[in-house]
């Protein structure tokens, strides 16, 4: 699934890929200008959402939600 996402990001012009000069079996992924703009926009959007959620349920409860989501994602990933 990760290679598909990377391929889509490359096709859409958000990243570019170069062979790793130290290990020919791997590649290095770089953000281009468009990718950097997307990253900044996503970061700003996520911060805005987090602030909104914090005002609704409070910072501590939101931290619990995030910790639970990370735990679930890690457990599910390990099962696959």
Task: Give the key terms.
80 residues; alpha+beta; two-stranded antiparallel sheet
Q: Would you write up a description of this structure?
A:
The protein is an alpha+beta fold and 80 residues long. The protein folds into two domains: 1-31, no CATH class; 38-80. Helices cover 70% and strands 12% of the residues. It has helices at 2-11, 33-57, 59-79; strands spanning 15-19, 27-31. A two-stranded antiparallel sheet has the order 1-2. Helix 2 crosses helix 3. It is flat.
CA-based shape:
flat
Major pleated sheet: 2 strands, antiparallel
Sheet/helix structural class: alpha+beta
Tell me how many strands there are. 2
Residue runs with pLDDT of under 50 for 5 or more positions: none
The end-to-end distance, rounded to whole angstroms, is 12 Å
Q: Mind sketching the topology for me?
A:
Elements: H1 2-11, E1 15-19, E2 27-31, H2 33-57, H3 59-79
Antiparallel strand pairs: 1-2
Entry summary:
The chain is of the alpha+beta class.
């Amino acid at each position: 699934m990760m290679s598909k996402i990377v391929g889509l990001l490359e096709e859409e012009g958000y990243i570019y890929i170069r062979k790793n000069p130290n290990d020919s079996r791997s590649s290095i992924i770089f953000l281009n200008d468009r990718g950097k703009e997307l990253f900044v926009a996503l970061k700003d959007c996520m911060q805005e959402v987090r602030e909104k959620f914090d005002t609704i349920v409070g910072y501590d409860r939101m931290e619990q939600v995030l910790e639970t989501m990370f735990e679930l994602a890690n457990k599910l990933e390990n099962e696959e």
